[in-house]
Amino acid sequence: MFGKPVIKNTRITIEQILRKLAAGMTLGEIIADHPHLRREDIYAAQEFGADYLADECCNLELLMPLRDAGHDLLI
Length: 75
Prior knowledge:
This protein is mainly α. The chain has one domain (14-68). The protein has helices spanning 14-22, 27-33, 39-54, 60-68. Helix 1 (14-22) crosses helix 3. 7% of the residues are buried.
């Protein structure tokens, strides 16, 4: 998938799963869309995202427009 991380043995990107969760989809709804996924796959995607962000340094200039748009950010 163009160098993006994917769920093991699938073509489903971590980004796809995280965006579905962010949109409010439940684990059950995601699994209904992708019946070959297991709950553990979705948890692994979340863990990957958390691990990736743990090593990131935030650019406050990029976050300010989000805060100004009304998103709850602790900065």
